[in-house]
Design goal:
CATH class of the largest domain: Alpha Beta
Helix content: 25-40%
CATH architecture of the largest domain: 3-Layer(aba) Sandwich
Radius of gyration: 20 Å
Largest sheet: 7 strands, mixed
Length: about 270
């Protein structure tokens, strides 16, 4: 057994040497997870057996994302289960939920394409109590995880999930369409952060040669799946706003952009042109 303070110092040092950006913060989170407690619970402990955190520490030092190790990630103030079948929810994606809230729309039907953990859909349903949503993901394991998250968050009766290629299996329209599509250019994926390139699913990252393959497919189908008066809100990759706007305008949509907290153009909102 060693003192908690020493354990935190040792974990921090190991993570720092591994290139982790916030080693002290992650050390606390990792140790709390290993002990089955939270940050407050650490204060109540005097000593710890290093064997209890050896395995999760080795995994994080190998640059496996912390959210895959703990199996949880917060999004929009909600706790989501995570797995390597899905991308890890990111704060930047909350920009899409913010855009919907500021749109003036009160959707009763929501479609989330490439739902992953279900974070976008379920955060939106959390805000719009009268809405029902459908989440679609090509990976059946992702759809199953999103369904589990819906049940855990008390939204199971207001959401359905299926595995399919975008909206090809659906034959009705929705007032709100959400999507965080794969938008990384194929050749750029190996150069991403080790946590992303080495662990997050390539299927959810690879946007094709120009990063626009998924956008083209979704926008081409919007006239069929977006109800009159509805909106579609899509997440954007860095520097993609102009190209996606061009695709949307050619398809007959009006566009507006929303920036995330770092100032990046992160979400594009599409409406039918009158």
């Amino acid at each position: 057994m060693i003192p908690i303070a020493q354990a935190l110092a040792d974990i921090t040092d190991r993570l720092k040497r591994a290139g982790i950006e916030a080693p002290r913060r992650e050390a606390r989170l990792l140790l709390a997870f290993a002990l089955g407690t939270n940050a407050a619970g650490l204060l109540a402990r005097d000593t710890v057996d290093p064997q209890l955190y050896a395995t999760p520490l080795a995994r994080r030092a190998a640059r496996e994302p912390l959210a895959y190790i703990t199996g949880h990630k917060e999004f929009w103030g909600l706790d989501f289960l995570t797995s390597p079948a899905t991308l890890i929810p990111r704060p930047d994606s909350e920009t899409l939920v913010e855009a919907v809230l500021e749109s003036g729309l009160a959707p009763r039907s929501v479609l989330d394409l490439g739902t992953g953990t279900g974070c976008l859909l379920l955060a939106t349903l959390h805000e719009y109590k009268a809405a029902f949503g459908v989440g679609v993901d090509l990976n059946p394991n992702a759809a199953a995880l999103a369904r589990q998250n819906a049940r855990r968050l008390g939204l199971g009766s207001r959401a359905a999930f299926l595995a399919d290629n975008w909206a090809s299996a659906l034959n009705h329209s929705f007032e709100l369409v959400l999507a965080n599509p794969p938008y990384i250019e194929s050749t750029n994926i190996p150069g991403l952060m080790a946590e992303v390139a080495g662990y997050e699913p390539a299927l959810a990252l690879d946007g094709g040669i120009d990063g626009l393959t998924a956008y083209a497919a979704i926008i081409a189908d919007l006239p069929r799946i977006l109800a009159p008066g509805g909106i579609a809100v899509l997440e954007l990759g860095l520097g993609q706003a102009k190209s996606v706007m061009e695709l949307a305008r050619k398809a007959g949509f009006g566009c507006s952009l929303r920036r995330d907290l770092s100032g990046t153009e992160r979400a594009i909102m599409l409406r039918f042109c009158k």
